[in-house]
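Can't paste images in this forum, so I'm doing it all in text. The chain is below; anyone willing to post the predicted structure tokens underneath?
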Amino acid sequence: MMTAVLLALLLSQSGGPEAPREPAPTGPTVTFAPAESPLPSLVYGKGIACASLGSSPQVPSGRYRLQCDESTRRCLAVPVNELEADGTESARPLERTAPCHELAQGLLQRLIEGYTFVPAIAEAPPGWYRDERGRVMQFNFDLHRRVWLGGAWAPLWRMGEPSALSRGRVDFGIITEFPDGEQMMRRFTVLDTELVLGEQSSLDTTLLRYDTNVRQDKPPIRVTTFLGKPRRWDFTFDMGGWLEVLRLELLRRGGIDHIFYTFISGHLTLDLWHSADLASYVRVRAGPSLEYDRTHGFFALVPGAVAEGNLTLDRNGFHHLTFGAEVEKLVLDREVEGRPHHPERLRVRAGYELILLAINDQPLSLVLEGRGQWRTDLVDERPVWEWSANTGLRFSLWAPARRSAPLAASR
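Text version of the structure:
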């Protein structure tokens, strides 16, 4: 009876059941300075605090990321969520931000009393850019580390024969590299594959390739000249290694399938030039390969030599250039009717790749490439130069920012 009376009294005072209310804003309410143009950005790598500055129509959560400067007595403040197109806070948290520590209430009160709070843009890691709504996007790409899938038109011309224009190429693979301090770069390529469909079809795939670029600490040869003032000249030999395991090459020419298995190849490399980070290089390499001719059923030793380059032409990785020239000669092989004993192969190539745009921060590239080869190891095939020109697109499923990527503010 007493409980019912108390309940009736409470309802009479309140006028009925109370409707649900929005959570009360936490923390003090802060007045912001007028927004600057362009908006300043928090600095990546410097200390960042999180605090509640009071709810507002634009930022209902009232939660901000803060970076304060004692010399200017300013605090840059960024909502913890992305903004909608109209400038109001969304429910999407900021991506790729640095960790922040919660600001003590007493320290926050002192900042409010003595500092100016300025609207800003959140920090972004090297190689990434953040717009005024807080959305982050990648602007720097490392094409020496990626998973790729590409397609191209690949017409072929053989001297004295009709052009093979109805050819297409599909290529895919995985490449990554690991610096060992500042003195060595280790590079791995897995399932490097090219499939050409249509006339004069072919398949070239390699299970694993490993190579290194090396920078010598001490030059092995030092020459001093004494014409006038003594001068010292240092000569370095930046030698590394190149290893290829399980390569399959299949070519269809004249209705015949020519199949070659290369079980292992080992080359010594000599860098003629490399970039400071060892990612780009121009080099020569030479060494033997163990090859099995599946079509005719015998093994052969194949010494070869290559001059090649792999260059990123700009600091954001949008322009990528590759080139090479290779010569091989089969020795310890068996004589086969229809081709010379100890046949030879010559190959040249040059390619250029340009990043056009990014889909979900993964780059889509335009690929332009020219190739030529001359070989005498194909039975009943005239040894003539054949040339191909490949034009297509390549999508990199994983391409992180370069190790030398700048912060967006320093672009």
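The helical segments are 2-14, 105-114. The chain has two domains: 25-138, 146-410.
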